[in-house]
């Protein structure tokens, strides 16, 4: 069915302004470059390159068409500077001013922005706000490798985790530089064009996520499930996407791979940040997503006391996805009392059932952040039709 052609009116009354669903339909039509970036052969329309089009859509969607959420409403509006993206890249040590700025919402765009509109990249600003004002959750789970393989082969449509934690996260063009010794963020740095989903209380949230068996896998899912990109409107063009959950990131890594990286003290992406602890050390480990898409930052600590580190290169392993949403990366709330009990039980179980394997160490894995390029997220929010990963 052909998409409904919508003309952006010069008037802004409630009666003739297009709805968010109608605006999204129009945005999809003029966002073919996002499809091109994913390898499909599509022509970029003239409208897609027209800053006036994106300025008007931005105004209608996030200023005049703002949806109230009561006390929890986010009234921050992001603007991406009109500069070459070559100046940004993915360099975490980027110096100078960030490539974006933030303003508080006002009823008119001129009052929000108040500067020369040519200073803003309106297309990228629209997509940054579309992402920032969408609702996301992350699922961290322990699963068996056998269950994951059955899912890949189509035997299990839904994965049954051994243990899981679901946490609301927020999209940000900035990344948090966590310090493992202080267990809190000490600074925030620009991440754009990456979008980061940080878990500030990672040490408490995931304190009970402990891998205790060699067939355990550490699984991470990032889902979008409402907000700006999935507006709850009925009877309109894209009603089929209402209340839809979209999986933006899905990956898992095995216990042996985490263990090897943890002991090696160095990953293929750079040095770990190793902090000496008693009874165990904590390492910052970076895991690449399936197909090299995205990066997951995890704090890994051994429950058992380790008196030395084994040095040596990791042996990254990568499996391609088979169309069901789960892939294998390359190496990559419960109460504290419950977590402590679980950790003790895990160590006792490992000691009693694996006496022949004296090196088995229960590993606690606390997700700190997920980072994905903005255009990957925007593409999936607009175009992805694959069913979400259920766990």
From TrEMBL:
Name this protein carries in UniProt: Uncharacterized protein KIAA0930 homolog isoform X2
PANTHER family the record matches: KIAA0930, ZGC:172139
